Amino acid sequence: MNSSPERNHDSLSSIAAARHAWLDAMRSSDIDRLAAMVTDDIVVIHGNGRCVRGKDELRADLLKAFRSFAIDQKVSEPEVVERGKWAFEVAEVETTLRPLSKGDTKLVRSTTVVVLARQPEGSWRVARVLGLLD
């Protein structure tokens, strides 16, 4: 556990910066930037139970999504717990999927758990994501 309030504040600030960078990259459909923000062994479990493992699968999953939709996500103020090299973030996420061709805009609400791994230089990368549909 972190006993230093300064370190905890610094960690929370860098975790928030990682979250904002992720949301910006999603809005920009920037697969390379998103892939740079995850660990090599990333695991994403979508709200429908579909599982994506590793950067290659994540890239393919994002490419498929970005070919069909413009994606915008909004995240509530998350709860963040830091334990050593791990941080656990729980938040309400609202995802807007705007079709690039025909179709209606979809709004998906979920409670999402994100596990971040602190890297040796101090940055944070997404290691696990669990989306629970509301």
What does this structure look like?
The protein starts with a helix and ends with a strand. 33% of the residues lie in helices and 45% in strands. The chain has helices at residues 5-27, 31-36, 54-68; strands at residues 38-45, 51-53, 69-75, 79-83, 86-99, 106-118, 124-133. Strands 1, 2, 3, 4, 5, 6 and 7 form a seven-stranded mixed beta sheet that branches. The protein has three helices and seven strands. A hairpin with a 5-residue loop joins strand 1 (38-45) and strand 2. The protein has 134 residues and is α+β, with helices and mostly antiparallel strands. The chain has one domain (5-133): Nuclear Transport Factor 2, Chain: A.
- SS-based class: alpha+beta
Rg to the nearest angstrom?
15 Å
Number of helices: 3
End-to-end C-alpha gap: 31 Å
Helix percentage range: 25-40%
* SSE string: HHEEHEEEEE
* Broad shape: globular
Beta content comes to: 35-45%
Number of domains: 1
- Quick one: how many beta strands? 7
CATH architecture: Roll
Major sheet summary line: 7 strands, mixed
| The CATH topology | Nuclear Transport Factor 2, Chain: A
* CATH class category label: Alpha Beta
Low-confidence sequence ranges: 1-6
On the 0 to 100 scale, the average pLDDT is 93
